[in-house]
């Protein structure tokens, strides 16, 4: 739906002035003459008025904010835009929260040109840039992959002298990593570093995912080293990504060397750390290293998940050692309910094993088992072994 940027004649500021001190009641149609030309008679509109009173708690100084947020949160964008046009041509200045939520709603419906017009209107009306305004706009355009609008917004922010804050810089990195090229993403990261801001966890994950998708594992390792492996606020994320860059290429000596450096630096291995190493050991059929990793997990009190069990099962069945599988799994608590605790970055690099995929299918489609307490690792292993034995059977048709 296209919205007119020109204000109605009867609501022009020269014909009628709205005093900030005078409260305006939203339930009086005389206060909003534009609604009398296009009445809203649907039941969803009446529900929205009730939800606005319950869910929205804003100061009574600006009656427009409550209505815009109420309409936007309930998906009534045409009505929200009508109130927005009236607010722009009144004496009120919209708040950052109102602009942010309205832009999010417009981004969800794909109306990026309308969101860009809102940004220009607020920039002209506000005496100084609203805090978080350009962050909301960049996030809005980035969610839809509108890199051209995002670049224009970023250049406009710089031209107005608005300093790049951490939230905006990390949002730009996230958008480029999802929709842009690696060069654009690395340029945005350099700009963030020059602004003396730290990249946050979401930015690290987005850039790591982009490198993994492109298969640039050497550049991935260089990136996490540049961020700083000693950062405690990110936990084991940087170390795990570094180990992942070696494990996916099966550089076992480098993997072991960096793992020892990690433990000597005071970082405690978690489930992601062990599963990254065990996936490499499983694909390389290094059974002794698999057993040592299981002992290390037991000593460190790390609870294994479905990926851990899958590494052991796939490695033994790949080498036709199914009879020895019970010995390999004796260190695991097979009666615990099955769950997946591994970081999605690991699956992006390694993929999922055959046991993992089969187990997820069983857990998803067998609702009767879910009602009776869920699947245990023992149940999943038994069903998977039966499936493998049936696959190896040869039926002769006469």
Write a structural description:
By secondary structure, the protein is an all-alpha fold. The chain has a domain at 269-398. It has helices at residues 34-37, 43-55, 63-73, 77-88, 96-108, 112-125, 133-143, 147-159, 166-179, 182-194, 201-214, 217-227, 237-247, 252-264, 271-283, 287-300, 306-318, 325-328, 344-350, 354-365, 367-371, 377-392. Helix 3 (63-73) runs antiparallel to helix 4 (77-88), helix 5 (96-108) packs parallel to helix 7 (133-143) and helix 11 runs antiparallel to helix 12 (217-227). The longest helix is centred in the C-terminal third of the chain and has 16 residues, at 377-392. The protein starts with 33 loop residues before the first helix and ends in a 6-residue tail after the last helix. The relative contact order is 0.05.
Helix/strand structural class: mainly alpha
Distance between the termini: 67 Å
Total count of strands: 0
Which spans of ≥5 residues are poorly predicted at pLDDT below 50? 1-61
* Shape summary: elongated
Strand content: under 5%
Helix share, percent: 55-70%
Largest sheet: none
Q: Please provide the ordered H/E string of secondary-structure elements.
A: HHHHHHHHHHHHHHHHHHHHHH
If helices are DSSP runs of H or I spanning 4 or more residues, what is the number of helices? 22
Mean pLDDT: 80
Which value, in Å, is the CA radius of gyration? 29 Å
Task: Please give a handful of descriptors for the protein shown.
mainly alpha, elongated, PPR_rpt, TPR-like_helical_dom_sf
Give a brief description.
With 398 residues, the protein is mostly helical. Helices cover 63% and strands 0% of the residues.
């Amino acid at each position: 739906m296209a919205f007119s940027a020109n204000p109605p004649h009867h609501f022009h500021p020269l014909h009628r002035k709205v005093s900030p001190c005078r409260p305006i009641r939203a339930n009086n149609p005389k206060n909003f003459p534009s609604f009398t030309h296009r009445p809203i008679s649907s039941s969803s509109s009446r529900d929205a008025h009730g939800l606005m009173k319950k869910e929205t708690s804003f100061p009574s100084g600006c009656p427009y904010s409550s209505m815009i947020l109420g309409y936007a949160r309930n998906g009534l964008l045409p009505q929200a835009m009508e109130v927005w046009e009236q607010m722009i041509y009144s004496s009120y200045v919209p708040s950052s929260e109102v602009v942010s939520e309205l832009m999010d709603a417009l981004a969800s419906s794909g109306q990026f040109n309308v969101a860009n017009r809102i940004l220009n209107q607020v920039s002209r009306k506000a005496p100084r840039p609203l805090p978080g305004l350009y962050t909301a706009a960049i996030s809005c355009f980035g969610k839809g992959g509108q890199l051209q609008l995002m670049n224009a917004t970023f250049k406009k922010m710089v031209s107005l002298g608005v300093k790049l804050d951490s939230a905006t810089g990390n949002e730009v990195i996230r958008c480029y990593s999802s929709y842009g090229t690696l060069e654009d993403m690395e340029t945005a990261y350099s700009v963030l570093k020059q602004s003396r801001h730290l990249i946050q966890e979401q930015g690290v994950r987005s850039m790591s995912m982009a490198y993994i998708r492109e298969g640039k594992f050497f550049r991935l390792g260089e990136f996490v080293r540049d961020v700083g492996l000693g950062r405690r606020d990110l936990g084991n994320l940087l170390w795990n990504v570094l180990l992942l860059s070696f494990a996916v290429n099966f550089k076992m000596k480098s993997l072991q060397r960096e793992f020892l450096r990690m433990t000597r630096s005071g970082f405690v291995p978690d489930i992601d750390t062990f599963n990254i190493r065990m996936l490499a050991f499983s694909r390389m059929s290094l059974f002794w290293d698999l057993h040592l990793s299981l002992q290390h997990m037991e000593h460190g009190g790390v609870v294994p998940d479905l990926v851990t069990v899958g590494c052991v099962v796939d490695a033994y069945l790949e080498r036709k050692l199914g009879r020895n599988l019970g010995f390999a799994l004796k260190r695991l608590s097979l009666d615990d309910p099955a769950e997946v605790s591994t970081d999605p970055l690991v699956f992006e690099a390694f993929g999922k094993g055959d046991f993992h995929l089969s187990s997820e299918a069983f857990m998803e489609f067998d609702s009767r088992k879910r009602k009776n307490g869920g699947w245990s690792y023992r149940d999943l292993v038994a069903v998977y072994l039966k499936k493998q034995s049936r696959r190896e059977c040869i039926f002769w048709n006469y």
